[in-house]
Structures are given as C-alpha cells and as structure tokens.
Amino acid sequence: MADHNQRSDTIVRKLRENGHKITPQRLAIIKILAKSEGHPSVEDIHEQIRADFPTMSLATVYRNIVLLKSLGEVLELGFPDGSNRYDGNKPAPHPHVICIRCKKIVDPVLDSLDEMKKEVALETDFKILNHRLDFFGICSSCMAGKG
Amino acid sequence: MADHNQRSDTIVRKLRENGHKITPQRLAIIKILAKSEGHPSVEDIHEQIRADFPTMSLATVYRNIVLLKSLGEVLELGFPDGSNRYDGNKPAPHPHVICIRCKKIVDPVLDSLDEMKKEVALETDFKILNHRLDFFGICSSCMAGKG
DNA sequence: TGTTAAATGGAAATTATTATCACTTGATAT
DNA sequence: ATATCAAGTGATAATAATTTCCATTTAACA
Q: Which of strand C's nucleotides are less than 7 A from any protein C-beta?
C-alpha cells in the first residue's frame, strides 16, 4: 500500500513537471493504475471510479491513459484477442505469463532476457529500443480444475 | 518459390482434410499468405488480389484468415499500434525484430528461447502453450539515414 | 448434370478508440 | 482570497477495424 502511494506520487510529480493539472478524476485513475491490481482494462478503471464518481467519462480514462503512456508511466499490455490492459505499477517492459483460462497475469523473473536482447542486437544489427515477451498457458490452479 | 508452392499445398491439404472447399478467392489468399512477403496486412492481401480479381471482398479476406488461424496455418502478428499483419509461411510462434521506422520485420534465430520457456514453466508452475516475443528498434539501414 | 452445404459480396452491425465542443476547473499571479 | 485562462472534463459524434447478415453463387460429390 505504501508502495502504491509512493508510485502515485511519482506519477503525480511527473505530471506536474510536464505542466499538467491534477484533477480529482485524474488522481482517481492514477491511484488505480499505480496499484494495477490484476492489470485493469479501461473498462475496469472506469467502473471502479464510477462507484464513487458517477459522472466519470470513459473518454477521460482513455485520455489519461494516452497521456501517461506518452510519459512512460503506464505500460499497455495488448493481448492477441485485441483487448488492452494496463500496468502503471511497473511501467517498464517486462515479461508476462498469462493464464488463458482465468486471465491471471504473473510477472516472472527472467534474468536471461537482457542477454537475449544483446544477442538480437548483434545478430540483426538493429538498435533495440523496446520489447514484448508474453507466455500464454494454464496456471496451476486452473490445471487442478479449481478455476 | 518452390517452397511457397509446397506451403500452399500443405495449407490446401489441411483445409480439405477439414472439409473446406477450395475457391479461387481462397486459393489466392492462401498463395499470398504462404509467401507472406513482408508479413502482409489484411489490406495488403485484399489489394494484391483485387488487381486481377476486382470483386474480391474484404470480408472474404477476414473470413479466410480467421479460418486459417483456427487451423494453426497462419500466425497473427499484433502490433502495439493495434494493426495486425500475418505470417502463413512460418505459422508457429517465433520472435520478431521490428523496425519502428520502416516497419521491416526480421526473424532472428534465438536458441535460448526454448530454454527460457522451460525456465518460466518451472518458476511459475504454468503449463506454457504459446508465446510472443517481439523486439522493437531501428534497423541499420534506417540508422544510416537511408530510410 | 443435380444437389447441397459451404463460401462469397456487399452492406449493415458491432466494438474499441479518438475527436469535437461547450462548459468547468486547477494552478498561478495578483 | 480572487481573477484569469489554459488545460481538463463529460457527453456525444466520428472513425476505424473487424464481424455478422443475408441473398446469391459455387465447389464437391453422388
């Protein structure tokens, strides 16, 4: 929780530094993204905030996500089915392991990824700026039939 | 070229095995996907075929791609900007290196990926079925300012 | 050839996202 | 504190990509 507050503050600071206002709507969005519990979708965020902010517009959620993406403070996770979910807690690209049954997302630690990045740069002669690595499968709990 | 014919034949055979008809439109789509030069988009495919098949409908291209995806004969490459491109030549998941400037796509050889897959399965206790690995950057030719 | 289920073309429907615009408000200077 | 004003918001319209619908056509097989 302290972690999330800290993360919110970082995002707020970054926004101020870039001359953006902090509105209540924006702050509510930031708080959810700073936690990013379960990697929320735009709809998830919208619904959560609507509970105590009934006039919150979907457009505002979209606008703020675009802004935060452009500042590098949220990571967009685009899924093969076209849906998008967001991570404002760990906005740097990192691998995901996704359960295709219950949609749970786990962040594995893969030390070998940096090495691989170098390998790719060397082999292809590209300047690598960014990457995306997702594994899809079934989590142990779904495999046990608990899902 | 012989390669591409062979690949087309494989796809056609798979379709017949599953009780699908081979129409001229379908075959034209298959031929382009079997080659997958430059990883075509739906629009690319549609335009190429329109040249000598003016009534070809966009819906038909979409329908056939859905079908071929479901049979595991084309791989959909979904990009962060929401656009999709397709690979019917190498339909198994494989890493891509994408130039964000000229949109060129290179398929690097990464032997360590299998190893990583095992590592992830072990660490997360998931049964890994599928994956997606893309690197984004600038190719050497664009870096040299030729783009 | 005749039959029939599958495929097609064209248009309408759907979905996710972005743009528009009149109105409101947070941040700054006074 | 209050006035000012650029930035932000809400509601809705517009856009874009994809899917569905339906009447017509056609590939496959008897």
A: 6-12, 16-20, 25-28
Cα separation, B26 vs A68, in Å, equals 43
How many whole angstroms separate alpha carbon B3 and alpha carbon B11? 13
Task: Sort out which chain B residues have CB atoms less than 8 A from A76's CB and list them.
Answer: 80
H/E run at residue B6: helix B2-17
Q: How many CB atoms lie within 10 A of CB B118?
A: 11
- Minimum mean pLDDT among A16-20, B30-34, B107-111: which range? B107-111
pLDDT in tens, A89-136: 999 999 999 999 888 999 999 988 999 999 999 999 999 999 999 999
Token output for A40: 């929320």
Q: Which two tokens stand for residue A14?
A: 């970054």
